Predict the 3D structure of the following.
Amino acid sequence: MSFIELAKDRYSVRKFSDKPVEQEKLNLILEAGQIAPTAHNNQPQRILVLNTPEEMEKLAKCCPFRFQQTLALLVCYDREASWKRADFDNADSGDIDMGIVGTHMILQAHELGIGSTWVMHFDAEIARKEFQIPQAFVPAAILMMGYPREDSKPSRLHNDRFEITKTVFYHNY
Ligand SMILES: Cc1cc2nc3c(=O)[nH]c(=O)nc-3n(C[C@H](O)[C@H](O)[C@H](O)COP(=O)(O)O)c2cc1C
């Protein structure tokens, strides 16, 4: 599959089967996150792997979604490690870095037949308490993962993309 075919084929999976993700596949997914570019190569990603029923119960306390996932990656960045635009406005690259790290991982997962949904709708403070996340770590995303259930299908939003002329502009046009 070409990259564009892979990117088009991926969709947010919100129904997972109970088949666990094999450790070697999880390792590849995590490696894809490890090699992602980050600002100044500071590599501030700190990824908590959640894959037990007890951890899924804790996850349910901070996140309202019930996808029956068998695996979740709580993607954090260390705000003491992320690059800051110190010469100008001190903007923090952490969220952008995590966007790239997470994207690498969900696309690698898809290539392996493992579905995912990126979740931002969660209570970061509860997650911090439940999983003893250090204060310097900022929880940026939860990537719900697992093998898609047989009846999993893309949501209406998956195919609901604007015309490219609405989102891309040529300066001299
Ligand atoms: C930053 C971000 C946050 C998101 N948060 C949630 C979320 O909290 N819950 C959810 O069900 N989907 C969430 N999504 C998934 C989007 O709704 C989904 O990617 C979008 O509707 C396009 O559908 P598709 O992924 O199937 O192509 C999020 C996606 C992104 C990129």
User: Anything to note?
Assistant: Helices lie at 3-9, 23-34, 53-62, 94-111, 124-130, 164-167.
